[in-house]
């Protein structure tokens, strides 16, 4: 079999590889927890995408998710933004995207990966889909979000704060772009972006100092 040839399985083989019964697999299919198989006459053919989804379902069940919750997550996952739309192919970026399985995402945000939070993260453009994987647009934002949730802040509130930060960040980007483009050609915008980032980081650091001093008074 060629390296690029897609593996396909009959229902009995797929169930055995996933460690479940054929009856359970049929139940998952009826609940639309997995995509429909490819039909060839009366034979249903499944592939590695189905196997990956079944292993994710098993992992989410072990973490306490209900089948109803998993069905809603699967629906949000299946209707999420494609990673190409998320990243903007060919655009320069200083952020490093991170690939995650749904299981890995659930592990990072224990108990907080709800359909609502998943949809909100996709709406914000934090998450996109690529086959059976999720892609987070920024390793730094993923790590910060995880740390905030571990500190006890609900993920929903972290995402709502992220939306507000996005509005301010867009305004700051417009401010710097307008400033630079009034006095320099467009290629300078990319070269000078580290200066803009440094100003924002310094001003935020000073603002936090002022906020903490105000709180201690």
TrEMBL record:
Location of the HTH merR-type domain: 8-76
Report the PANTHER family cross-referenced here. Answer: HTH MERR-TYPE DOMAIN-CONTAINING PROTEIN, REDOX-CYCLING DRUG-SENSING TRANSCRIPTIONAL ACTIVATOR SOXR
Q: InterPro entries from the xrefs?
A: DNA-bd_dom_put_sf, MerR-type_HTH_dom, MerR_fam
| Signal peptide location | none
The record's Gene3D superfamilies line, in alphabetical order, gives: 1.10.1660.10
Q: What is the lineage of its organism?
A: Bacteria, Bacillati, Actinomycetota, Actinomycetes, Kitasatosporales
The name of this protein is MerR family transcriptional regulator
- Database matches in SMART domains: HTH_MERR
Q: Which domain of life is it from?
A: Bacteria
Q: Which UniProt keywords apply?
A: DNA-binding
């Amino acid at each position: 079999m060629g390296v690029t040839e897609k593996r396909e399985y009959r229902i009995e083989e797929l169930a055995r590889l996933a460690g479940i019964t054929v009856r359970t697999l049929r139940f998952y299919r009826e609940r639309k927890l997995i995509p429909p198989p490819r039909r060839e006459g009366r034979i249903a053919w499944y592939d590695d995408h189905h196997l990956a989804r079944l292993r994710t379902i098993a992992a989410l069940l072990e973490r306490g998710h209900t089948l109803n919750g998993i069905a809603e997550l699967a629906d949000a996952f299946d209707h999420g933004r494609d990673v190409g739309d998320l990243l903007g192919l060919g655009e320069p970026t200083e952020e490093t995207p991170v690939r995650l399985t749904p299981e890995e995402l659930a592990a990072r945000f224990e108990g907080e990966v709800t359909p609502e939070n998943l949809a909100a993260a996709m709406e914000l453009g934090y998450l996109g889909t690529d086959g059976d994987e999720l892609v987070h647009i920024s390793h730094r934002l993923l790590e910060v979000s995880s740390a905030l949730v571990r500190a006890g802040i609900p993920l929903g509130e972290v995402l709502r704060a992220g939306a507000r930060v996005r509005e301010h960040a867009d305004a700051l980007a417009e401010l710097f772009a307008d400033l630079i483009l009034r006095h320099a050609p467009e290629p300078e915008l990319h070269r000078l972006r580290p200066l803009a980032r440094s100003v924002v980081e310094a001003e935020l650091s000073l603002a936090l100092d002022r906020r903490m001093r105000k709180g201690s008074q």
